[in-house]
Specification:
The chain is α/β, with parallel strands linked by helices. It contains 24 helices and 13 strands. The strands form two sheets. A seven-stranded parallel sheet has the order 3-2-1-4-5-6-7, with helices on both faces. A six-stranded parallel sheet has the order 10-9-8-11-12-13, sandwiched between helices. α4 runs antiparallel to α5 and α5 crosses α7. The longest helix has 31 residues.
Length: 559
């Protein structure tokens, strides 16, 4: 981050600390593609006090290990990764990142914010064991299909579901009480039960659970939101209904109690609906969410529309979503970069050895890295990447006599279709298929290969492009320059191609004259430093936080 302008915005944190004796606190809800994790990490470095709640979501790309651990080993299930099965090289999750069962996350964060250290420690352990439990259950269900049928049947039986839930809930509590008893006796040499009643509020008391009055408050809030939707979107035939919001009835009181512990709430993707229902001010952060979701004739579409239209401010990270954001939130919209530390990969080593290894394995002297999700067959997935366009160009180059090699990731609905395409053109032996890579492995491979390849359909760019450019890796992709110029003052220096012929011509030129790649690599890093720095990302948000905190006197007076 640039130090001089950063000092100006640190004044906000310093003034807040002087007035309240602490840093301004922010809760980030949801963590698709680690956007909340990266954002909170940057804001914490700036002096804010951020937590992330990543509830009931375990995908590898929503875990801190994926971002910051140089792990070794294979994650067998991308949706339910067992991080204990790989070597994390001493990486430890930050205590401000809560991932696991929803209520466990809430109990942990409430205890953490209220400085109930023993209770917070217990719930942190519960989160860890809960994740292991989820991994074990899903491994068994995938290995034994008959168990999946039984499990699905039991899940559909309300009483059985409640019994199972309570069983595991109290097993956890019993286990942690025993652990806490041992720790308290050894470390504090005092009676556990005396301390337990005074210091530990492990489970919310009955008084803190949803009440009948809270249920009636929920009904009133739902009525308000339904009326808001009618006013904001009178032209929509699919009007919001009470049924759309009913699934949130019993959980919103828990969210309310969590929100009360923070100065700022920021919901990612579709999660802004939670603070809206809780009648709590919030910011909304989109990362492709606004392309199609708000306009779906579904409960998710209607709820996303009203949530973004009522946000204090909307942060947009994809240039092709700006118009939709403005349609929903009017002038309360700011375009910003994806949150990412542009210097994250500068110290990554081992890429020279990896280049030699890949060239030998693939019988190549020029390497492409194609980490993009394989979704290109219409009707079978998102079909939004155009992978076949590049794969055909790659095969053309190889068949023309160029010793090119390719590293792909097994990710997306059409991996097998891509393999069939390569096999049909006798190029499968020159392609290495890897598991999706954590950020550090990604950075190492991007530096090892000569060109990183992304999508050829959307015209915008996301994590693959800016993370590769940040380590000075040349990029080949399709960008819609007119749309990009709405977001940036300068076109990023990429090999911009849209079809197979353009790819073959442009890539052939770089293969024949690889020295040009050095200039492209340098230009890529310079562009990132100038247009996609983490400070720009922080500045955009901090400006809005400053306005909000200054205007929200009632909120601050209640802290």
């Amino acid at each position: 981050m640039q130090e001089i302008p950063a000092k100006n915005y640190l004044i906000l944190v310093e003034k807040f600390q002087e007035k309240y004796g602490r840093s301004p606190s922010i809760l980030h809800i949801g963590n698709i593609a680690n956007n909340a994790y990266n954002n909170a990490k940057l804001l914490n470095k700036l002096g804010f006090d951020c937590d992330v709640i990543c509830y009931d979501y375990y995908h590898i790309m929503g875990c801190p290990e994926w971002e910051d651990a140089d792990f070794q080993g294979e994650i067998k299930d991308q949706f339910f990764p067992n991080w204990n099965a790989v070597d994390l090289k001493n990486f430890q999750r930050p205590k401000w990142f809560a991932q696991g069962f929803l209520k466990f996350c809430i109990y942990y964060l409430v205890a953490k914010r209220q400085n109930r250290k023993i209770s917070a420690w217990l719930w942190w352990q519960a989160l860890e064991i809960g994740r292991l439990y989820i991994c074990l259950i899903n491994r068994l269900l995938s290995k034994y299909p008959f168990l999946a049928k039984i499990f699905n049947f039991l899940k559909g039986v309300k009483k059985t579901r409640l019994v199972i839930s309570k069983f595991f809930h109290y097993i956890f509590i019993f286990f942690y009480c025993l652990k806490s008893y041992t720790i308290t006796i050894v470390k504090q040499k005092t009676s556990f039960f005396d301390n337990f009643s005074k210091k530990i509020n492990l489970i919310p008391s009955r008084n803190s659970l949803p009440k009948k009055t809270e249920s009636s408050e929920f009904d009133e809030r739902v009525k308000e939101i339904v009326e808001l939707f009618q006013r904001n979107f009178p032209e929509r035939e699919d009007q919001l209904s009470f049924d759309d919001l009913e699934p949130y009835r019993h959980i919103i009181p828990f969210w309310k109690k969590l929100f009360d512990n923070y100065d700022i709430i920021q919901g990612y993707s579709t999660d802004p609906i939670l603070p809206l229902l809780a009648k709590h001010p919030y910011f909304a952060f989109e990362h492709g969410t606004l392309r199609d979701i708000p306009f779906e004739p579904t409960a998710r579409g209607r709820l996303t529309s009203i949530a973004y239209s009522e946000a204090e401010h909307v942060f947009v990270t994809n240039s092709d979503c700006i118009n939709n954001a403005i349609f929903l939130a009017d002038n309360r919209v700011s375009a910003m970069n994806h949150p990412y530390d542009e210097n994250h990969g500068l110290q990554v080593d081992g890429w020279q050895e990896l280049r030699q290894e890949l060239c030998k394995k693939l019988n190549a002297d020029f390497l492409f890295f194609f980490p993009t999700r394989h979704d290109w067959v219409s009707g079978s997935g998102y079909a939004d990447k155009g992978n076949d366009i590049f794969l055909n160009a790659f095969c053309h180059l190889r068949q023309a006599g160029y010793k090119v090699g390719l590293v792909c990731c097994q990710w997306g609905a059409n991996v097998q279709d891509s393999i069939k395409l390569l096999s049909a053109k006798n190029c499968v032996d020159f392609v290495l298929w890897s598991q999706p890579m954590g950020t550090i492995q990604f950075e190492r491979t991007a530096k090892a290969c000569h060109v990183v390849v992304d999508q050829f359909k959307l015209g915008s760019f996301g994590g693959i492009v800016f993370k590769a450019m940040a380590v000075a890796a040349p990029i080949c992709t399709y960008i819609n320059e007119n749309e990009i110029l709405k977001h940036y003052s300068e076109i990023p220096p990429v090999i911009n191609c849209k079809n197979e012929d353009e790819l073959v011509v442009n890539l052939e030129a770089y293969i024949k004259n690889p020295a040009q790649l050095s200039d492209l690599a340098s230009a890529s890093k310079l562009w990132i430093d100038k247009h996609h720095s983490s400070w720009d990302t922080l500045k955009t948000q901090v400006e809005q936080y400053d306005k909000f905190l200054n205007q929200s006197k009632n909120l601050l007076n209640n802290i």
